[in-house]
Amino acid sequence: MHNNYQVEIRFADIDVMGHVNNAVYFSYFEQARISFFNELVGKDWDWYELGILLARNEIDYKQPVLMSDHVIIRTRCEHVGNTSLVFAYDIYRTPKGQTEATIAAQGKSVLVCFDYKKQQKIKVPAEWKERLA
Asked: Domain residues for 41?
């Protein structure tokens, strides 16, 4: 399963060099994850009982993203463990006036399943494992 998320680049995302600031990419990953999970479990999921914690983020920058670029993030679950998931992201940019997309950045996140009511990590829900297999 994968999800494509179209990024809306905001003026606040741009740094003095005229491209998306490196720290903003992690917010883009978060937005892409939300889109992925909405597709996986729906918007009515009880995140307090069957939630996730972000344990790790990493990114490799390939080329800058500019405000005028069309940006898509392809998100996929790369690994399902007992209590954790590894998500991978490819950020594609298409410069204004062009039709060919290139990879601007690639990243990964480790997510731990967590019960916020009990304040403890939990196993990956069977429903998720089934859909992600």
From this structure: 2-132
Query: In Å, how far are 50, 59, 108, 123, 132 from 127, measured between CA atoms?
Result: 11, 29, 22, 11, 9
CATH code, domain with 30: 3.10.129.10
Instruction: Give the pLDDT mean for 38-46.
Output: 85
Structure tokens at 88: 């991978």
- Compute the distance between CA of residue 28 and CA of residue 9 in angstroms, rounded to an integer: 9
In whole angstroms, what is the distance from residue 21 CA to residue 17 CA? 9
Q: CB-based contacts of 13: which residues, under 8 Å, 6+ apart?
A: 20, 21, 24, 67
Cα separation, 88 vs 110, in Å, equals: 9
Calpha distance 80→88 (Å, rounded): 12
Q: Say which DSSP state 12 is in.
A: G
Closest CA to 91 of 16, 14, 9: 9
Question: What integer pLDDT is reported at residue 45 of this predicted model?
Answer: 81
pLDDT, one tens digit per residue, over 81-100 is 999 999 999 999 999 999 99
State how many domains the chain has.
1
